[in-house]
């Protein structure tokens, strides 16, 4: 099995679905959205 196939299989499993749902809940929180924006800003400024 290739790595992509294993990841895909995991994401369809019950445990994978739990992790996906948890990730979506965490991303919906305003404080986490702000952290991601700050991280993206830092990354984009490094590339210049």
From TrEMBL:
Compositional bias (Basic and acidic residues): 21-34
Q: Where is this region: Disordered?
A: 1-48
Q: Where is the composition biased (Polar residues)?
A: 1-11
Where on the tree of life does the source sit, at the highest rank? Bacteria
Q: What is this protein called?
A: Uncharacterized protein
């Amino acid at each position: 099995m290739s790595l992509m196939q294993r990841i895909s299989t995991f994401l369809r499993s019950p445990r994978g679905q739990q992790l996906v749902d948890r990730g979506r809940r965490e991303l919906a929180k305003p404080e986490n959205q702000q952290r991601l924006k700050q991280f993206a800003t830092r990354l984009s400024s490094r590339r210049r």
